[in-house]
């Protein structure tokens, strides 16, 4: 049965665009909630832990953040299984509901001075829920966006996953700037203002929940629901029948996720601690470069629909291997805000060869009955190990006086991914989505 024909008769163009928007907005809200924790930790850490040492408070808060990363593989498995067995729409709806509850719990939990050890316990519970949610979100939304897109524009439509992922960071950063500069004093932010972004996140999650409840289910899921035995859907046993694809997802993600977290979440600290820019300068550079980075994703995604996925991955692998050390070395030695801006932008342009299409490439590797699980679980494991430890390793190398070792570590990981890109076929031509 022709994929294009089947989808075109089942879903109109307007409905398809609405589905892409609904799936993407939910993704944006989930990532906003995830990054709001990191952005506002400096303001709320004292509320959840005993008074005294601020470093200890931040360390405890960071520890709970790390636990959230450890939950992501479990979320990738749990929601991938739900998506492959019950439906993509149901899994995405449950995912955003869980994130909403986690944000609301953080916003409403009384301080340590009021309820004692229950405060950090509730913060931990909230972060566990958010870790589960965001761990499942990637695989399910990547699968949904890829399946809802037409075959000739799949790279373009699926690229909006990273547009909204980056958008979540931008909104969290924008709200922080707004509260800092225009609306609240430092004392108000520390006392109660830090709760505002989590209330906003909970409200946005309810809106995303409404949008997702009205989404169409994908044709790929509907087809396999009636043609594949239940025990095969979302099964680890069934997934293990695709070892090459699983290793491809791990290798594909390894260098890309490390580069992404280095140039996005860690870069603000790098610009302050290593480049010696002010916090205001580093925030401004990060905000503008992330905005341009987000705008580039559909451009690269559309390009992959024309020339294939593999050339973009090879471009990232080759340029990332050759340019990471020179770019980060030059960035660490610059004293110019303008130079820092262009060096970081160059790095993000290179990374776009991975971020724009990695979701669709992974989705194209697996058959429908294990697609969400196959995309989400190995990705979440790889991100937890390499993306989640990027900032810690970078700061550890810096503390040891060998910060440049981190540059070479990123290079080595990207080179490992390059070997995978060089050995894999172009999934645009070999897509398993053509099988129904």
Structure keywords:
436 residues; globular; Growth Hormone, Chain: A; mainly alpha; 81% helix
Order of helices and strands: HHHHHHHHHHHHHHHHHHHHHH
Strand content: under 5%
Q: Got a strand count? A: 0
Give the helix level as a range of percent. Answer: over 70%
Helical stretch count? Answer: 22
User: Biggest sheet: strands, sense, closure?
Assistant: none
Fourth-tier CATH superfamily name of the largest domain: MFS general substrate transporter like domains
Characterization of the model:
This protein has helices at 3-10, 13-48, 54-85, 88-108, 112-115, 118-148, 154-158, 160-183, 186-191, 196-213, 219-227, 236-239, 243-263, 267-273, 279-307, 310-333, 337-355, 358-363, 371-387, 390-399, 404-423, 427-430. The chain is an all-alpha fold. The protein folds into 2 domains: 1-235, MFS general substrate transporter like domains (Growth Hormone, Chain: A); 243-365 and 389-431, Growth Hormone, Chain: A. The longest helix has 36 residues, at 13-48. The chain is globular. It starts with a helix and ends in a 6-residue tail after the last helix. The relative contact order is 0.15.
């Amino acid at each position: 049965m022709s994929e294009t024909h089947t989808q075109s008769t089942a879903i109109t163009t307007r409905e398809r665009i609405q589905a892409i928007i609904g799936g993407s907005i939910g993704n944006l809200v989930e990532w906003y909630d995830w990054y709001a924790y990191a952005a506002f930790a400096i303001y709320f850490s004292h509320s959840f832990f005993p008074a005294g040492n601020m470093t200890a408070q931040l360390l405890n808060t960071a520890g709970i953040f790390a636990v959230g990363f450890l939950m992501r593989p479990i979320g990738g498995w749990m929601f991938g299984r739900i998506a492959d067995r019950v439906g993509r729409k149901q899994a995405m709806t449950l995912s955003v509901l869980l994130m909403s509850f986690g944000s609301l719990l953080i916003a409403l939990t009384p301080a340590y001075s009021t309820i004692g050890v229950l405060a950090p316990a509730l913060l931990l519970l909230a972060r566990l829920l958010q870790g589960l949610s965001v761990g499942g979100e990637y695989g399910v939304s990547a699968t949904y966006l890829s399946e809802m897109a037409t075959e000739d524009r799949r790279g373009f439509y699926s690229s909006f996953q990273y547009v909204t992922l980056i958008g979540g960071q931008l909104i969290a950063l924008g709200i922080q700037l707004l509260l800092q500069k225009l609306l609240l004093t430092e004392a108000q932010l520390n006392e109660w203002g830090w709760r505002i972004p989590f209330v906003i996140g909970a409200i946005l999650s309810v809106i995303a929940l409404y949008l997702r409840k009205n989404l169409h289910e994908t044709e790929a899921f509907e087809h396999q629901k009636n043609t594949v035995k239940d025990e095969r859907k979302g099964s680890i046993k069934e997934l293990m029948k695709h070892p090459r694809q699983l290793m491809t997802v791990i290798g594909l993600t390894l260098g890309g996720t490390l580069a992404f977290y280095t140039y996005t979440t860690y870069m603000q600290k790098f610009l302050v601690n290593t480049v010696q820019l002010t916090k205001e300068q580093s925030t401004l550079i990060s905000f503008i470069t992330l905005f341009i980075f987000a705008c580039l994703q559909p451009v690269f995604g559309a390009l992959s629909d024309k020339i294939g996925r593999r050339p973009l991955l090879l471009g990232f692998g080759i340029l990332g291997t050759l340019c990471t050390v020179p770019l980060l070395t030059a960035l660490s030695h610059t004293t110019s805000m303008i130079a820092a801006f262009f060096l970081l932008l160059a790095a993000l342009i290179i990374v776009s060869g991975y971020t724009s299409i990695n979701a669709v490439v992974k989705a194209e590797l697996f058959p429908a009955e294990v697609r969400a699980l196959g995309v989400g679980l190995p990705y979440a494991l790889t991100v937890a190990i390499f993306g989640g430890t990027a900032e810690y390793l970078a700061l550890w190398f810096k503390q040891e006086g060998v910060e440049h070792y981190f540059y070479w570590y990123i290079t080595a990981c990207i080179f490992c991914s390059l070997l995978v890109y060089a050995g894999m076929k172009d999934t645009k031509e070999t897509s398993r989505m053509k099988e129904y």
